[in-house]
Each structure stands twice: as structure tokens, then as C-alpha cells.
């Protein structure tokens, strides 16, 4: 691994202009996808590395022991059942009800999830994918209740993180840990494979405090329907399903979303967003001010890199 120094890079030129006034624009990706060369001691197989590079995501199953998984499931349930103990900023409810939609700063609300964020099976893989030491840009618990769980519309995370958080380059990855079974029916993660190779610069200026509405229903920083249709026609559409305990790593620019959940079966996933230490955020590229710290670790002071921890946590 080529470890870089923790300082803001590429500040002179905006490599990915977005939130344009004159219409949507598609450009080729300028950054590597897999930042490490695969080797025999890598934490993923060669086939997994090739799949991530080509498709923009990776699904890993049978990662945790039954005891570890049960501890994560029990802890996530306790967090959801006691929303009054979660700070107001960290708690997002469904658009039309008080049902918990998202709990941010998941690692701060639970020692167990803090340990999970540093686990070598998660953070260690992120280090390999990004070819650098990493820190947590964001963490959250997404909960899509049965019958009423709303959709998450199509978007690229990097577009938002670049425009509103000031993330310079595509050197970040999300790890989604499935805490319930995710089937094709209960609103699982859908991805457009290969879409990470194209940057979609979206139309429309960023409103003040855009996060206050976008966390419930995102309307700014999303591709046009015609663009989504064309990419899906060209590249296909994949769904990341699996039993509880599955981990889905997806590249920061991969176009993704999820349907609403009208089944009786809830869907619950923990998310950790890892950013490379060489890719610290700065001033937003397309917003007047950064989003609040619960949404984006602004790196002031410079965060300490995660030290991946091996061994069982339960």
C-alpha cells in the first residue's frame, strides 16, 4: 500500500464541476477505481478485485460469526427502539411518519458499531480498495420499515460529497453491512454496474441547507430520468441481495438507489463511508457552506487514520 500524507489534494482545479445552471453533463472518470494492485496477501480475491474494478461494487458473504451477527442485530434494534436517546441532528424519520429512517454517527452511538467500523474485515478491505489509510467520512444506520419504508432515489454519493462536503476526488468507498435479510422484494440496494466510470454533473444550484430536505427525499444532485434510462439500457441493473451479515462495498461514484418497502419484512443496513487520508474534504465545490459534521467529517482537526483491528468482537 502506498500511504500518503494527510493533506488536502487537488485544490486548485475542480476536477468534477457539478450543480450546473445550463444542464446536465456526463464526463469520463479521471481517477482510478481500484487504487491497489492485487497480490496474494490481499484481503479480497483476484476475482473480487476485478469485479469491483469493472462493476463498481463487491458483495462479500459469510464474513461474521453467528454470535457477532446477532450482537449487531440486537444493538441496531435497541438503537431504533430508543430514538429519544439519539440527538436530534443524528435522527432522520420517514417523510410521512415518525418511523426511524436513518441514525447518523452510528459509531458514536454504539461501542459495538465503533468496533465494527475498525474491523479489518471492513476497514482493512477499504484500505486495500483505496490504496491508502482511511478515516470515517460518515456512518449511519438505514432502516426501511415494513409496509411504509420509502425509496432512496437514484444518485451518486460522490456527486453530493463533492458538491456539498468538498471531497476532491473519487477515492472513497461505502461498506453496507446487512443487518436483516435483503431480498429482491424489501427494498434492497440497486446499482447500475459500470456507472462509476462516468461522472454525472447534475443540473440545478444547491439550495441553502439542502440536507434538511434531501435526507428525506433527494431532489437536487440527482440524474435526469432520461440519463438513468440510457445508462440502465447500456449497462444493466444489479441488485445487492443477501442474508444478514453480508457486506456490500460500493465505489463512491456508482449510481444506486432502492425501492420503497411495502412487504412485511423490514430492511436494516449499517453504513460506513471510508475516505482516503489523501482525499480530505475542504470547502464545498457547489454549496455556500459545508454540511453539518453529523453528515460529513470535515477533518478539522485532521482525523486520525483508522487502525484496523482483527479478531472476533462478540
Helix-strand blueprint:
Layout (H helix, E strand, L loop, with lengths): L24 E4 L17 H10 L1 E4 L5 H16 L9 E3 L6 E5 L1 H4 L1 H7 L2 H11 L3 E11 L7 E4 L1 H9 L6 E7 L10 E3 L6 E4 L9 H4 L10 H11 L2 E3 L6 E5 L4 E3 L8 E10 L38
Antiparallel strand pairs: 1-9, 2-11, 3-4, 4-5, 5-13, 6-12, 7-11, 7-13, 8-10, 8-12
Question: Can you characterise this structure?
Answer:
- The chain has 314 residues and is α+β, with helices and mostly antiparallel strands.
- It has a single domain (25-279), classed as Sandwich (Jelly Rolls).
- Helices cover 23% and strands 21% of the residues.
- The protein has eight helices and 13 strands.
- The strands form three sheets. A seven-stranded antiparallel beta sheet has the order 2-11-7-13-5-4-3. A four-stranded antiparallel beta sheet has the order 6-12-8-10, with no helix packed on it. A two-stranded antiparallel sheet has the order 1-9.
- It is globular, with a radius of gyration of 18 Å.
Please give the oligomerization state of what you see.
single chain
| CATH architecture descriptor text | Sandwich
Order of helices and strands: EHEHEEHHHEEHEEEHHEEEE
Question: Which homologous superfamily in CATH is the superfamily?
Answer: q2cbj1_9rhob like domain
Average pLDDT score = 91
Q: What overall geometry do the principal axes of the alpha carbons give?
A: globular
Adjacency order of strands in the biggest sheet: 2-11-7-13-5-4-3
- Largest sheet composition: 7 strands, antiparallel
Q: How many separate helices?
A: 8
Structural class: alpha+beta
CATH topology: Jelly Rolls
Beta-strand percentage range = 15-25%
The first-level CATH class name: Mainly Beta
Amino- and carboxy-terminal Cα gap: 30 Å
The number of domains: 1
Let me know the number of strands: 13
Amino acid at each position: 500500500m502506498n500511504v500518503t500524507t494527510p493533506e488536502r489534494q487537488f485544490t486548485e482545479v475542480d476536477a468534477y464541476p457539478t450543480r450546473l445552471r445550463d444542464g446536465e453533463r456526463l464526463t469520463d472518470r479521471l481517477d482510478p477505481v481500484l487504487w491497489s494492485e492485487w497480490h496474494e496477501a490481499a484481503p479480497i480475491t483476484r476475482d473480487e478485485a476485478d469485479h469491483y474494478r469493472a462493476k463498481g461494487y463487491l458483495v462479500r458473504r459469510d464474513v461474521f460469526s453467528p454470535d457477532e451477527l446477532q450482537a449487531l442485530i440486537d444493538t441496531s434494534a435497541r438503537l431504533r427502539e430508543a430514538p429519544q436517546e439519539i440527538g436530534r441532528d443524528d435522527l432522520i424519520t420517514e417523510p410521512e411518519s415518525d418511523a426511524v429512517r436513518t441514525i447518523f454517527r452510528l459509531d458514536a452511538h454504539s461501542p459495538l458499531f465503533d468496533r465494527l467500523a475498525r474491523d479489518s474485515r471492513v476497514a482493512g478491505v477499504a484500505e486495500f480498495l483505496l490504496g491508502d489509510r482511511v478515516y470515517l467520512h460518515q456512518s449511519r444506520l438505514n432502516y426501511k420499515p415494513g409496509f411504509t419504508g420509502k425509496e432512496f432515489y437514484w444518485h451518486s454519493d460522490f456527486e453530493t460529497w463533492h458538491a456539498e462536503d468538498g471531497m476532491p476526488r473519487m477515492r472513497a468507498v461505502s461498506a453496507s453491512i446487512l443487518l436483516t435479510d435483503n431480498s429482491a422484494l424489501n427494498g434492497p440496494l440497486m446499482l447500475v454496474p459500470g456507472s462509476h466510470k462516468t461522472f454525472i454533473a447534475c443540473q440545478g444550484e444547491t439550495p441553502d441547507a439542502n440536507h434538511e430536505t434531501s435526507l428525506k427525499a433527494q431532489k437536487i444532485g440527482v440524474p435526469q430520468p432520461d440519463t438513468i434510462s440510457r445508462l440502465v439500457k447500456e449497462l444493466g441493473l444489479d441488485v445487492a441481495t443477501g442474508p444478514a451479515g453480508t457486506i456490500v462495498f460500493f465505489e463512491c461514484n456508482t449510481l444506486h438507489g432502492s425501492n420503497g418497502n411495502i412487504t412485511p419484512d423490514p430492511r436494516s443496513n449499517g453504513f460506513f463511508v471510508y475516505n482516503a487520508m489523501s482525499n480530505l474534504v475542504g470547502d464545498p465545490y457547489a454549496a455556500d457552506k459545508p454540511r453539518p459534521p453529523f453528515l460529513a467529517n470535515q477533518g478539522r482537526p485532521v482525523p486520525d487514520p483508522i487502525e484496523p483491528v482483527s479478531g472476533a468482537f462478540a
